Amino acid sequence: MRYTSGAIETLIDEFARLPGIGRKTAQRLCMHMLNEPRTAAEKLAKALLDVKDRVIRCSECQNVTDRDSDPCVLCRSSGRDRTVICVVESPVDLLAFEKTGHYKGLYHVLHGVISPLDGIGPDDIKVRELLARVSRPEESLQVREVVLALNPTVEGETTSLYISRLLKPLGIAVSKIARGIPVGAELEFIDEATLSRAMEGRSAM
Amino acid sequence: MRYTSGAIETLIDEFARLPGIGRKTAQRLCMHMLNEPRTAAEKLAKALLDVKDRVIRCSECQNVTDRDSDPCVLCRSSGRDRTVICVVESPVDLLAFEKTGHYKGLYHVLHGVISPLDGIGPDDIKVRELLARVSRPEESLQVREVVLALNPTVEGETTSLYISRLLKPLGIAVSKIARGIPVGAELEFIDEATLSRAMEGRSAM
Ligand SMILES: [Zn+2]
Ligand SMILES: [Zn+2]
């Protein structure tokens, strides 16, 4: 048995296509939209199309930005240290660093990591664009350090190594963010791999 | 810190307005749409507007139906017993009964329950429309029984009592669905109120 409305069925189907949205949730969302004014549906519909029509990748850092704002606000900002580039996998990771408010350099978004098993090679992510950025002759744009901030997965590590080998011959300092005990975490609840990394990465006091 | 794209921020805001969708989930859904082809966004956008433009309430049973299908398929069906009407709170509850495949009568959807604390009175839900249905003089449409299938809440019980008092003087049999132990449930895990109800509602074997 399905709903007595084809329009309702279709909207439930479309909601259920979204990741992490099951049929029960899709049904609840659809019923919610039924009870909302038409303007609510219009706003969500417009936002969906706008994201497809207006969002592009910044020609500098490959971060997401609006069509009428390229390079992105971060790349255009006069308050950023242009000698450091932090390399991240996704715009969400970039946002995580920005939220800390501590990092003041530039970014480069790879939009993925090298993953041979998934058929993703260096040319499928934004490695070439990174290389172009750090190779520019203009003195004012000289990048001195690239900080790799990829996820601690096998693919992330592989990608970090690959990029590091490309950049070092260019005389650029390449670093990697520290792995260790999260702030506020209790040692007894930390997994062994993290503990080992924390021990390896110990620093003098 | 927000995204470097206004279009992305707007879509996250709109997703986060949906019930049960937090900001993290909204962010994930937005990133998903960014990676989908434009047709995926178009389909969801169209489905949202269609639900507002095409869905109406059946003039007979108040169930949701499409504009070009009134009365709804259930009310038009020749295979239903027109002497019984099952009264439910919402289209979702109607669907739950239809899924069982056992009930073959008609329905009436109240679209809510009487709730004085929320300022919802009998005229704010579809009680008047139910009264009109059972009061029709045509012999062929004569309703003999109304089954109240509202949720076992204070408001549901109040509404059941209210409707029952309206219908009984009209010579219509009014019944209420049984409360009791769910099929397959183990007694030890059933709450006391349900156990008491099950005991009260015991039937001869
Ligand atoms: Zn940028
Ligand atoms: Zn109907």
Description:
The structure is a homodimer of 205-residue chains. Chain A is α/β, with parallel strands linked by helices and 205 residues long. Chain A contains eight helices and six strands. Chain A folds into two domains: 6-56, Orthogonal Bundle (Helicase, Ruva Protein, domain 3), CATH 1.10.8; 70-176, Dna Topoisomerase Vi A Subunit, Chain: A, domain 2, CATH 3.40.1360. Helix content of chain A is 42%, strand content 13%. The mean pLDDT of chain A is 90. At the A-B interface, helix 1, helix 2, helix 3, strand 2 and helix 5 of A face helix 1, helix 2, helix 3, strand 2 and helix 5 of B. The site of one zinc ion has 8 residues of chain B, from helix 4. Chains A, B: This is Recombination protein RecR. Chains A, B: GO terms for molecular function: DNA binding; zinc ion binding. Chains A, B: Belongs to the RecR family.
Under CATH, the topology of the largest domain in chain A can be stated as Dna Topoisomerase Vi A Subunit, Chain: A, domain 2
Strand order of the largest sheet of chain A: 4-3-5-6
Q: Helical segment tally of chain A?
A: 8
Beta-strand content estimate of chain A: 5-15%
Poorly predicted regions of chain A are none
How do you describe this structure in short?
Two copies of one chain form a homodimer. Chain A has helices at residues 6-16, 23-35, 38-54, 73-76, 91-100, 127-134, 154-167, 192-200, and strands at 55-57, 64-66, 81-88, 105-109, 145-148, 173-176.
List keywords for this structure.
homodimer, 205 residues, alpha/beta, Helicase, Ruva Protein, domain 3, Dna Topoisomerase Vi A Subunit, Chain: A, domain 2, four-stranded parallel sheet, 8 helices, binds zinc ion
